[in-house]
């Protein structure tokens, strides 16, 4: 043991075996000893020698604790190598202790730990494993034990069967009998999982039909069958993770583990199919599918008639499908597949493939199906079909489809048996297959035959495309089904064309439209070697579908169906590389669809044009390249007309094109490659258009167009490489130099002339339309730059952004924040990030925010007289975004920003007890001061909230982990101190606004950690801010934080301490007049508080019930409903004598 003091581990041993030690103390003792053993500071031999007294004493409690300690230590030492002598001694000891029922738990833990050891660390041998099994079978009565010990026993059995099969094989009948005894009557879900796996492993141990398992197969299945179907009642808390599906799957594996169970399993499952419980039917069908595959065709042959009868009942008789709530049919009939039908079709597929000829003959010769098909002539009109008839049609179509998809031979038999009836019902024949079958179609057209024809076509195509023999297609092409289909191909196409022509907007024709369009899609997507649709017919299909897209957009269902068909055809063309079909598709569909982008047809909604273009474009890269090329040309041409001539119509249409470009097209290229080239081309093109226009004047729609252009520019920049971004940035800088606010290079940040120009009194009255566009596009480029992108003349760039910011241009603030977030610490040899920030602060931000003396070092602002200096709330907003960029990267200059904001909030001159923005305030300077301080309070929202416009990972921002939590921890004491010291009611109001922003945007886990400090301030926020309607959004955000604290276990302690105050504030909010959701949430919080310690909340019950009674008359129903729930919760803890 070396220099380790003996007393160290002895104390831990004594602590563990002591009955007075808590569970935590015992666990700590085990861990401490395990560490000594793992680090070789204590040998296992020394430990066992020291524990000998505890392992062999006649005191049952001490002996059981000692043996359990040794077992737990072995569990923790499973990866530590042990020699054979130690393993042999330990396994012998624990095997003997299996007979010591007073110390059984520790013996089980020790045996399991030794059995689970892996090769290379010291394992028990075959004879030792056999000895464990023999002792187990001889001494243990598993079902008489508690749940934990039963679970350990079953884990030992599982481990023996899984890892020591050779040792157990010789035990034969004794082993099987012992397992039957051990598992019989078990009810615990965790133990059942082990039992089902044990039965599966046992079948693997004795796979022979004449082995030991044969004698007990009936007994084992008698034990298992009582669990089918799995149904958990009253699950315990530790069984929450034990899913019913996992148990069901484990039982299914046990059922199918050996063919010896087949005589019992299949009759049981067939019987359960007649159950009135849908879940039992589903489980039975699922088990039948799996067991049928495992048992094999020979054993299942005798059940085929019974299985087909059961399947017919599940598919045809029982309600298996539900009508869709949508007006558009899902599959032509409007049914959603039920789980019963889904599982029944899976079983049918298994049976048809396993018993091809015999089972198929049952289906083809079935009288019910034949009678149903013969009844078509009685139900021609779709509107006359009952729901039951539609369900039967739906089921028959699926049955025949499954048969067709099973194999080429089964497809032949189905076609030979049923297809002639269908074409007769449709009045088709080979002779007139080359003419127009119906010059006009009426509502009495046989829908049943049409539906089944399309279903059979779809199944045939699925058989073809899923076959491994597609390469040798000529073999299948000679099958009879292919010859039959080819002979009627033209007639079918003509029927489908006529149905589409006769369709109208009424929903009663939707089923016909679905079948017709689906039929054309299938015929167009058959590989050419199977069904030869002529080139003329194929092109007619494409022309028909494309014409629907262009002209029939007012027929919603027809239009959607045609679009879906074209998408599928395009996918087929790209996948199977049929050159002739691809050429036709490109010349007809691609050309017409892509031309929709630049089409002047205003009748077709632009949203539908873009939907069609993008959905079809997604099917292939070449198509998408054509789409993006045409889209860029159209956007470019539109912008030229807008920028030069101010075309109002195009100004309204172009934002939609830009949104499609940025939200759909560019993300597609990001995911599929080629984004850099496409993005660079778009960005350069936009800047080129702007360069060519010296003047610009747009009306109201110009704002929407500018916003869409900025979004597209930012999205394009995210996809550009560093090199491409540098090209676009230089283009943007060149364009900025053409703006009217551009300062020459000698007017750089920090010079007197620059400072003079940036004084508020000398700024212009705002940006011109062209300057706003240039500044916005320039800012969009800067926002999305990568940190690695080189920025030339950074001082000039900051100058330009600062100038536009002070004119009220918010995107420039976003750009400044993005720059300070991404710039390297050392920008160049003579310029560092800190120097730039100091210059920016000292000469722009501080000069325009200062309401006191300026810091000479570029640091935070000191407060004095607010009437002595110029004010600019735009600079506050810009400073907030700069602060956000610094905060996200964790830069120390953030301190100066936050201190400045706090200085603005806590001016030492009380402006009086008026609320902010009093309309009757006469002094305009005071109003400007309050505006500035309001902006400082809102700055904390900017600092903490997530932004879609900039500073996010999509735009390559640097994001330090947990930055919000760190900032919250830094600002909390500063806010609390400022609030305590503040004597001005106005300053206090602004402080509460800022604090509310800080808390509401902080992750809840951080707020809960300081809940005791935060909660009183939150209550004051409610009290002060609820007086002004302008604070309604802040109040709701704080209320959400309060509800989070209330529902968190760690936060409830703070709630309980402040319960009276919290309840009073919530009562006040139940009558908040401005926002319904605040009243609703406040009542929900009061309801949740009824679950807290009664000693703290009981004194408030009368006030709560009085407030809730008033809320019962709230004008909003949702509030009244919450009030009813809350009243019931509080009434249950109140005295019954209370009367209202």
The strands making up the biggest β-sheet line up spatially as: 1-2
Q: Tally the helices.
A: 54
What distance separates the N and C termini?
A: 78 Å
**How big a fraction of the residues is strand?**
under 5%
Number of extended strands: 4
Based on helices, strands and strand pairing, what is the structural class? mainly alpha
Mean pLDDT: 85
Q: Could you give a short account of the major beta sheet? A: 2 strands, antiparallel
Q: Please bin the fraction of helical residues.
A: 55-70%
Ranges with pLDDT <50 over ≥5 residues?
Answer: 1-5, 323-328, 431-440, 744-750, 759-764, 851-858, 861-871, 909-922, 1135-1140
The global form is globular
Rg to the nearest angstrom? 40 Å
What's the topology here?
Elements: H1 6-17, H2 23-38, H3 44-56, H4 60-76, H5 84-97, H6 104-115, H7 126-139, H8 147-163, H9 165-169, H10 172-183, H11 189-205, H12 212-225, H13 244-255, H14 262-272, H15 278-295, H16 297-300, H17 304-317, E1 321-323, E2 335-337, H18 339-354, H19 356-364, H20 367-374, H21 387-406, H22 408-425, H23 447-466, H24 473-477, H25 480-502, H26 510-524, H27 535-551, H28 556-576, H29 579-595, H30 606-617, H31 621-645, H32 648-672, H33 675-691, H34 701-718, H35 722-736, H36 752-757, H37 769-783, H38 794-805, H39 810-822, E3 826-828, E4 831-832, H40 833-849, H41 873-889, H42 894-905, H43 924-944, H44 963-981, H45 985-1000, H46 1004-1009, H47 1011-1025, H48 1032-1047, H49 1049-1057, H50 1059-1069, H51 1076-1089, H52 1094-1097, H53 1101-1111, H54 1117-1131
Antiparallel strand pairs: 1-2, 3-4
């Amino acid at each position: 043991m070396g220099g380790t003091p003996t007393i160290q581990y002895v104390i831990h041993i004594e602590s563990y075996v002591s009955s007075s030690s808590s569970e935590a103390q015992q666990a700590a003792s085990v861990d401490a000893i395990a560490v000594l053993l793992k680090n070789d500071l204590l040998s296992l031999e020394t430990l066992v020698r020291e524990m000998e007294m505890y392992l062999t004493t006649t005191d049952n409690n001490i002996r059981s604790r000692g043996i359990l300690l040794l077992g737990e230590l072995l569990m923790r030492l499973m990866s530590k190598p042990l020699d054979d002598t130690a393993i042999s001694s330990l396994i012998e000891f624990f095997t003997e202790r299996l007979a010591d029922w007073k110390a059984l738990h520790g013996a089980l833990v020790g045996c399991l730990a030794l059995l689970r050891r892996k090769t290379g660390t010291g394992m028990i041998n075959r004879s030792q494993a056999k000895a464990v099994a023999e002792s187990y079978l001889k001494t243990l009565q598993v079902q008489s034990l508690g749940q934990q010990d039963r679970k350990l026993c079953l884990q030992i059995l599982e481990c023996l069967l899984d890892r020591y099969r050779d040792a157990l094989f010789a035990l034969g009948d004794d082993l099987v009998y012992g397992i039957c005894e051990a598992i019989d009557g078990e009810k615990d879900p965790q133990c059942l999982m082990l039992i089902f796996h044990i039965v599966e492993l046992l079948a693997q141990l004795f796979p022979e039909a004449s082995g030991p398992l044969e004698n007990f197969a009936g007994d084992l299945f008698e034990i298992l069958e009582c669990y089918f179907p799995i149904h958990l009642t009253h699950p315990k808390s530790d069984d929450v993770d034990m899913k019913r599906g996992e148990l069901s799957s484990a039982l299914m594996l046990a059922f199918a583990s050996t063919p010896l169970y087949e005589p019992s399993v299949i009759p049981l499952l067939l019987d359960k199919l007649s159950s009135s419980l849908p879940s039992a039917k589903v489980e039975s069908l699922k088990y039948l599918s799996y067991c049928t595959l495992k048992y094999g065709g020979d054993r299942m042959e005798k059940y085929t008639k019974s299985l087909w009868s059961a399947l017919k009942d599940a598919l045809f008789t029982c309600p298996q499908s539900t009508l869709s709530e949508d007006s558009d049919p899902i599959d032509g009939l409007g049914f959603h597949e039920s789980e019963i039908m889904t599982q029944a079709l899976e079983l049918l597929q298994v049976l048809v493939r396993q018993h091809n000829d015999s089972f198929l003959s049952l289906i083809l010769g079935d009288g019910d199906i034949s009678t149903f098909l013969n009844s078509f002539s009685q139900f021609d009109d779709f509107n006359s079909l009952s729901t039951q008839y539609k369900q039967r049609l739906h089921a028959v179509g699926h049955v025949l489809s499954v048969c067709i998809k099973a194999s080429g031979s089964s497809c032949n038999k189905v076609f030979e048996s049923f297809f002639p009836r269908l074409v007769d019902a449709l009045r088709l024949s080979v002779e007139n297959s080359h003419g127009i079958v119906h010059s006009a179609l009426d509502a009495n057209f046989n829908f049943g035959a049409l539906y089944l024809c399309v279903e059979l076509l779809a199944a045939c195509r699925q058989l073809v495309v899923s076959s491994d023999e597609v390469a040798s297609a000529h073999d299948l092409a000679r099958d009879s089904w292919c010859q039959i289909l080819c002979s009627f191909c033209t007639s079918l196409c003509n029927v489908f064309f006529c149905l589409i022509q006769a369709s109208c907007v009424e929903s009663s024709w939707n089923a016909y439209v679905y079948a017709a369009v689906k039929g054309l899609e299938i015929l167009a997507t058959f590989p050419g070697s199977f069904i030869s649709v002529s080139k003329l017919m194929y092109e007619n299909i494409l022309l028909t579908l494309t014409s629907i897209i262009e002209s029939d957009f007012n027929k919603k269902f027809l239009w959607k169906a045609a679009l879906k068909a074209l998408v599928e055809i395009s996918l087929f063309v790209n996948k199977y590389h049929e050159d002739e079909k691809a050429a036709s598709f490109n010349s007809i569909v691609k050309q017409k669809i892509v031309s929709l982008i630049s089409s002047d047809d205003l009748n077709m909604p632009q949203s539908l044009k873009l939907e069609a273009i993008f959905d079809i474009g997604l099917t292939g890269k070449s198509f998408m390249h054509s789409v993006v090329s045409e889209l860029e040309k159209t956007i470019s041409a539109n912008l030229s007309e807008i920028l030069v001539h101010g075309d109002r119509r195009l100004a309204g249409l172009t934002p939609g094109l830009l949104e499609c470009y940025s939200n759909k097209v560019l993300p597609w290229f990001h995911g599929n490659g080629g984004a850099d080239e496409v993005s660079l081309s778009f960005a350069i093109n936009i800047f080129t258009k702007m360069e060519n226009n010296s003047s610009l004047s747009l009306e109201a729609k110009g704002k929407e167009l500018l916003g869409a252009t900025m979004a597209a520019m930012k999205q394009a920049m995210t996809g550009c490489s560093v090199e491409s971004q540098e090209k676009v940035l230089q283009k943007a800088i060149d364009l900025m130099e053409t703006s009217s606010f551009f300062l020459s290079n000698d007017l750089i940040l920090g010079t007197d002339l620059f400072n003079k120009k940036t004084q508020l009194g000398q700024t212009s009255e705002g940006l011109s339309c062209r300057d706003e566009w240039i500044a916005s596009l320039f800012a969009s480029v800067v926002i999305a730059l990568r940190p690695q992108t080189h920025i030339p003349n950074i001082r000039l760039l900051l100058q330009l952004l600062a100038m536009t910011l002070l004119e009220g241009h918010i995107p420039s603030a976003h750009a400044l924040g993005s720059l300070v977030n991404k710039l390297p610490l050392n920008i160049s040899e003579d310029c560092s990030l800190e120097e730039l920030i100091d210059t920016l602060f000292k000469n722009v931000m501080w000069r325009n925010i200062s309401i006191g003396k300026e810091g000479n070092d570029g640091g935070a602002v000191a407060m004095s007289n607010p009437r002595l200096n110029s004010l600019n709330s735009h600079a506050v907003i810009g400073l907030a975004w700069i602060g956000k960029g610094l905060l996200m990267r964790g830069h120390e200059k953030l301190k100066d920003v936050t201190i400045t904001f706090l200085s603005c909030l806590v001016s030492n001159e009380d402006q009086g007890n008026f609320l902010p923005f009093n309309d009757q305030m006469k002094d305009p300077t005071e109003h400007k001061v309050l505006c500035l301080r309001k902006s400082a309070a809102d700055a904390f929202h900017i600092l903490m909230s997530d932004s879609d416009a900039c500073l996010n990972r999509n735009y390559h921002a640097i994001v330090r982990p947990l930055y919000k939590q760190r900032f919250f921890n830094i600002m909390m004491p500063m806010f609390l101190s400022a609030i305590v010291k503040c004597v001005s009611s106005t300053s206090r109001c602004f402080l509460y606004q800022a604090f509310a922003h800080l808390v509401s945007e902080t992750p809840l886990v951080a707020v809960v950690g300081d809940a005791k400090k935060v909660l009183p301030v939150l209550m004051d926020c409610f009290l002060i801010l609820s007086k002004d309607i302008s604070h309604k959004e802040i109040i709701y955000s704080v209320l959400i934080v309060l509800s989070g604290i209330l529902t968190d276990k760690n936060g409830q302690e703070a709630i309980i301490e402040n319960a009276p105050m919290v309840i009073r504030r919530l009562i006040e909010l139940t009558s908040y007049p401005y926002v319904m959701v605040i009243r609703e949430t406040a009542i929900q919080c009061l309801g949740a508080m009824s679950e807290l310690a009664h000693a703290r909340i009981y004194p408030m019950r009368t006030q709560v019930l009085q407030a809730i009674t008033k809320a019962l008359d709230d004008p909003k129903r949702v509030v009244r409903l919450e009030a009813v729930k809350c009243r019931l919760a509080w009434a249950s803890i109140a005295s019954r004598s209370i009367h209202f």
